[in-house]
Design a protein that fits this description.
By secondary structure, this protein is an alpha/beta fold. The protein has helices spanning 21-27, 84-99, 115-122, 159-167, 202-206, 218-225, 257-267, 275-296, 308-317, 331-347, 364-369, 388-397, 419-422, 429-443, 481-492, 523-538, 549-559, 565-571, and strands at residues 3-8, 11-16, 38-40, 45-47, 56-59, 66-67, 78-80, 147-149, 174-176, 183-185, 212-214, 231-236, 271-274, 302-303, 354-360, 375-376, 379-380, 384-387, 461-468, 471-479, 500-504. It folds into three domains: 3-82, Roll (Ubiquitin-like (UB roll)), CATH 3.10.20; 98-214, Alpha-Beta Plaits, CATH 3.30.70; 219-571, 3-Layer(aba) Sandwich (Rossmann fold), CATH 3.40.50.1780. 34% of the residues lie in helices and 15% in strands.
Length: 578
């Protein structure tokens, strides 16, 4: 492709024709501030509507300032990104945005993680410069168990709308109103709970302000921990261990598994366990279900059911295909069901006196806790789900720094896990874990090479044919609900012949979940998390779920066998059209 030569702040650079000034500046490591621009490398989506005008630059020969995010480069361009005129214009734009924005940073959930707040600080704005009219006033939408919408903080960047419509293809959010009253919201400013929102949280992940935040249950969990009449146990999902370190200044992809176990014990939980244990348990049930369906040739392909955002999606978008998802509960819910039965019996407690808290990378997990189908005898499997970000806040408020934590282990009997469980965090991991177990169950032979690298990676769709004895299993892995839609339509139209399909709502899987530390579109951070997850797996002595000794004991002492009566009662569920 032809290159275009230009000069930015006196430095020469050559970029591909069609590139923007913003891209050229990035090549020179020159920072140009943005609010509405978003580049999601992992899903090849770049959003630019040039609405905020924070990124304006001076182009020699042009009368007006140009938005760097939407202005294509031209041969011989001479650009200034830091002239007095540019800096003054950016400050004025920010002051105008802030004139219709609440000044409640101390109480805002996005405080210190808000792009608008950061830019205001950088440009020295600490007062409301433009006064004299009434600020926009809206009711805060708290109808969802996962996400809070505060339209007063919307700056109409429309990043949430882009990720909801173009990446996830759910289309819940859209521009509404005009002028100062314009915001992004559900149709007719309706509550989020009345829409087909999947609660994946990707809108929260890209929102540059506090207009979209997660619903926090931190105070509820503190109350439970301090209740002497309750036994409060906590589980930690695999994606947390390779991401939460970022909240404490560690490089992306730093694994803090053992430090995390120690930190959770310091918080005061009565027992600290690993969701990896129930991920192994999920594989026992799901691989048995896969074998049963393949043997009978019924209800194929089996679709994974670990991701609640994905389950919400198929229930509302493809209700005629609800025979295909595995009936297995997610690892979060399986853990809760076993904690309030098997573990409760072991420690002599009643299920009603147990409180199960989950630390998850996902906001849909908050909604999942509230589903009536995911309760046994009207007692919820899981009581509270906290995001990675929420746990970081709890630790910091308790004066706990992960950097200073000693290493410790998760507790028995629900702390033992295999490498197969670790990789649940990354797209392709659930399917790979299931294949490791299904191979040995089907063939009766030892699988020496457990790495199914053909299903790994951040690509939105991956397909492979895996040889399992005399069987050739056609499998697919998709992440991002837009990709899930495409694969479901292919299945529905008879254009695909798969035996198993793994689906994750968030692009790249749980490592890029809506409740993870904000990465601002930096794909390298997601890559580092993925690499750390596979390193965790490779470093384990046991890498197949069916070889987990604690899982073997659970079946021997309590469950009986996969897909048995007890397993169906506690570990399986059903779905309903929405």
């Amino acid at each position: 492709m032809a290159l275009v030569n230009l000069t930015i702040n006196g430095e020469k650079v050559a970029v591909e024709a069609g590139s923007t000034i913003l891209a050229a500046a990035k090549k020179l490591n020159i920072k140009v501030p943005t609010l509405c621009h978003m580049n999601l490398h992992a899903v090849n989506v770049e959003h630019t509507n040039a609405s905020c005008r924070v990124c304006v630059v001076e182009v020699e020969g042009r009368r007006n300032l140009a938005p760097a995010c939407a202005t294509p480069v031209m041969e011989g361009m001479v650009i200034k990104t830091n002239s007095k005129r540019v800096l003054s214009a950016r400050k004025k734009v920010l002051e105008l945005l802030l004139s219709d924005h609440p000044f409640d940073c101390l109480t805002c959930d996005k405080s210190t993680a808000c792009d608008l707040q950061s830019l205001a600080n950088e440009y020295g704005i600490n007062v409301n410069t433009y006064k004299g009219f009434e600020q926009s006033n809206y009711d805060v939408d708290t109808s969802s168990p996962s996400i809070i919408r505060d339209p007063a903080k919307c700056v109409m960047c429309r990043r949430c709308e882009t990720v909801c419509s173009k990446v996830q293809t759910v289309g819940v959010l859209t521009g509404f109103g005009r002028g100062f009253q314009a915001v992004v919201s559900p149709a007719e400013m309706g509550p989020l709970s009345n829409t087909q929102c999947t609660f994946c949280g990707q809108c929260v992940a890209v929102c540059p302000t506090g207009a979209l935040t997660e619903k926090s249950y931190i105070n509820d969990v503190w109350d439970e921990i301090n209740d002497e009449n309750k036994t409060v146990v906590v589980q930690v999902a695999p994606a947390i261990r390779v991401a939460i370190g970022e909240e404490f200044g560690m490089p992306a992809g730093t694994s803090v598994t053992k430090k995390l176990a120690a930190a959770l014990k310091k918080l005061g939980f009565d027992a600290v366990f690993d969701t990896d244990f129930s991920a192994d348990l999920t594989i026992m049930e799901e691989s048995a279900e896969l074998i049963e369906r393949v043997t009978k040739g019924e209800n194929l392909p089996i679709l994974t059911s670990c991701c609640p955002g994905w389950i919400n999606f198929i229930e509302s978008q493809f209700p005629d295909m609800l025979n295909l998802p595995s009936s297995c509960k997610s690892p979060q819910q399986m853990f809760g069901a076993i904690a309030k039965s098997y573990y409760a019996q072991k420690i002599g407690k009643e299920a009603k006196d147990m409180v199960v808290v989950s630390i998850m990378p996902c906001l849909a997990k908050k909604y999942e806790c509230s589903r009536d189908e995911l309760a046994v005898n009207n007692i919820a499997d899981v009581d509270y789900s906290l995001s990675t970000r929420e746990l970081a806040k709890m630790l910091k408020s308790a004066g706990i720094d992960l950097n200073d934590m000693p290493e410790d282990s998760f507790e028995d009997p629900m702390g033992e896990a295999t490498g197969a469980a670790d990789i649940f965090a990354s797209s392709g991991g659930v399917l790979e874990a299931a294949l490791r177990t299904a191979y040995e169950k089907i063939t009766g032979k030892t699988l020496d090479c457990v790495d199914f690298k053909e299903v790994r990676g951040l690509e939105g769709t991956k397909e492979a044919t895996v040889k399992v004895g005399d069987l050739e299993l056609n499998v697919a892995v998709v992440s991002g609900l837009g990709n899930a839609r495409k694969i479901l339509e292919k299945i529905k139209n008879g254009e695909a012949n798969y035996h198993a399909v793994e689906v994750m709502a968030c692009p790249g899987g749980c490592i890029n979940g809506g409740g993870q530390p904000y990465h601002h579109g930096n794909s390298e951070i997601i890559n580092k998390r993925m690499e750390a997850i596979y390193a965790e797996d490779a470093g384990k002595a046991v890498r197949k779920s069916h070889e987990n000794e604690s899982i073997k004991t659970l079946y021997k002492e309590f469950l009986g066998e996969p897909l048995g009566h007890k397993s169906h009662e506690l570990l399986h569920t059903h779905y309903k059209a929405k």
